[in-house]
Automatic annotation (TrEMBL):
Its cofactor is FAD. GO terms for molecular function: acyl-CoA dehydrogenase activity; flavin adenine dinucleotide binding. The keyword Flavoprotein applies. Belongs to the acyl-CoA dehydrogenase family. This is Pimeloyl-CoA dehydrogenase small subunit.
Length: 418
């Protein structure tokens, strides 16, 4: 399938690339990472000025109503520049709000860049299963009291509000077992809440992660929120959670693609300039074969990341054009085909396939690039190690390869009826 960005998408991607090349170089990023806050208010202001925070927000709430294909172009460029600002966390939080309806005023503040969001979903026992929720929500005369702990909340300490998943106290805890991977049916009692960072009983402990970004541990000790904090119907948040997580996984696939492309390019340049025995090491046939294998992995990952963006665009009901419909149908029909669950099963299948294939490519390209750089590849002074660290963290975020392979297999239509 042939795909090209439209004019507006390409212009935005070019603008982001120019900004990163001019004001967000490698040394600038290193300084931001090692600063006390770990993020740059100046960089965030530029992202807002470029319209990045408004892009995924519906037009009714001051945004541009950009679909997953538009976000695909943006995330590639942010991945290429290893941008550490809390953009993915905020955009994923905005998707929860969009899926749930309501919260228009909050979405308007997100679009204007005035509010940053974070998603507090993972727990100590849940690993990659976001439906394994032990955080409790008690109904107290129409208000809700939250008890629980959330771990590895990306940019939790930088957020103005958290999206928190919880289970009603009356429901069974830990229903998100392996048998329920990728299946929202039977996931009763899941609710989603917007929790302001200044809420009483909320404790946030931030720290820096392996890849230079920031995460946090969050404790909810009797945090009280009103009925207006609920996202979507009470105790029916599983479907929203499922859809938003797929959206987030699609964003990460696009970001990983940009990271891999940058890592491939810098490795190729190194092979052209590094000399051994009086010749560039890129002339050695064994290294050429390794680069060819890396290029194949990169293109296969690009195809799957794009297919995921197309699937998410169609699933969201966007007017994503005939190209989106044709692309998704071609990709799905060539694979497991359509089934009774329609777009829902297709979205899950394609996103999990993409997350798995992108993770496989990230591991191969990352390890290959480090080996081709030799001992220099693992130093903090060279960009290669930073690209590889980010790829490693993306692979572990919103489900690793094993999780998404299991989820893919669990979808209807994978095995033919006997």
């Amino acid at each position: 399938m042939h795909f090209e960005l439209n004019g507006e998408q390409q212009q935005l991607a070019d603008a982001i690339r120019r900004w990163i090349g001019r004001d967000y170089g490698f040394e600038t990023r290193r300084a931001i990472v090692h600063s006390e806050s770990g993020v740059s208010l100046e960089a965030w202001a530029t992202m807002v000025e470029l319209g990045l925070t408004a892009l995924p927000v519906p037009e009714a709430h001051g945004g541009f109503g950009g679909d997953a294909l538009s976000m695909f172009a943006v995330m590639q460029e942010l991945g290429r520049g290893l941008v550490v600002e809390p953009y993915v966390a905020t955009v994923l939080g905005a998707e929860f709000l969009r899926q749930g309806g309501g919260h228009g005023a909050l979405l308007e503040r997100v679009a204007a860049g005035e509010t940053k969001l974070a998603c507090a979903l993972g727990e100590r026992q849940s690993r990659h299963d976001a439906f394994d929720i032990s955080t409790r929500a008690e109904d107290i005369d129409g208000r809700y009291r939250l008890h629980g702990e959330k771990l590895v909340v990306l940019h939790g300490a930088e957020a103005d509000a958290l999206i928190v998943s919880a289970r009603s106290a009356q429901s069974a805890v830990g229903l998100g077992s392996a048998a329920n991977v990728g299946n929202v049916q039977g996931m009763d009692g899941v609710s989603l809440f917007v929790v302001p960072r200044d809420s009483a009983g909320l404790r946030i402990t931030g720290y820096r992660t392996l890849d230079g970004l920031r995460a946090a541990s969050v404790v909810l000790d009797g945090v009280m929120v009103g009925p207006d904090a609920v996202i979507g119907p009470v105790e029916e948040g599983a479907a929203i959670l499922d859809a938003a997580l797929d959206y987030g996984a699609g964003l990460l696939c696009a970001e990983a693609l940009g990271v891999m492309q940058a890592l491939f390019d810098t490795t190729l340049e190194y092979l052209k300039t590094r000399q051994q025995f009086g010749a560039p090491i890129g002339k050695f046939q064994a290294l050429q074969h390794r680069m060819a294998d890396m290029a194949i992995h990169l293109e296969q990952a690009r195809s799957m990341a794009l297919l995921a963006a197309l699937a998410l665009t169609r699933s969201a009901g966007s007017a994503g054009s005939a190209n989106a419909d044709a692309g998704v149908n071609a990709g799905v029909n060539a694979g497991a085909g359509r089934d009774a669950d329609g777009d829902l099963a297709m979205r899950r299948r394609v996103v999990s396939a993409a997350k798995y294939r992108v993770g496989l490519a990230a591991r191969f390209i990352g390890q290959g690039a480090i080996q081709l750089h030799g001992g220099m590849g693992v130093t903090d002074e060279l960009p290669a190690s930073h690209y590889f660290k980010r790829l490693s963290m993306i692979e572990l975020t919103l489900g690793d390869m094993d999780h998404h392979l299991e989820r893919f297999i669990a979808q209807p239509g994978f095995r033919e009826a006997a």
